[in-house]
Amino acid sequence: MIEHVSFTVSRADAQACAGFYKLLGFSRIEPPAGLGDRSIWLRRNGTSLHLMFRDRDGVDIAQSPQPGAGHIALVVDQYDAVIGALTAAGANVDPRSEYWGSPRAYVQDPAGNLVELMAFAPT
Prior knowledge:
Layout: E1 4-9, H1 11-23, E2 27-29, E3 39-44, E4 47-53, E5 55-56, E6 59-60, E7 71-75, H2 79-88, E8 94-99, E9 102-108, E10 114-118
């Protein structure tokens, strides 16, 4: 199980990213004291995403890989409905070959991070 994944995002992209992950079933949660001014935290079941701001007052505050340098794989409930919601929201969904019989696709969040979506986990 993935406990959390941390992505660095610009403040300008943070709200769009939070909205993107809401479409994938994540809800906002309060970050621990001291992190609220520099991040947005989201949670779905047992998995957390930490959107860490890479800039503050125009100054880069975090080491950041190139957008899309890694990815997170997420199993999503109601896979077809989620793909439809992302497509309707303007996301570029890239269907991929099925692995383990599971439909899957790649999509980028508004900050350019690569997200692999799967209908179910490998067995």
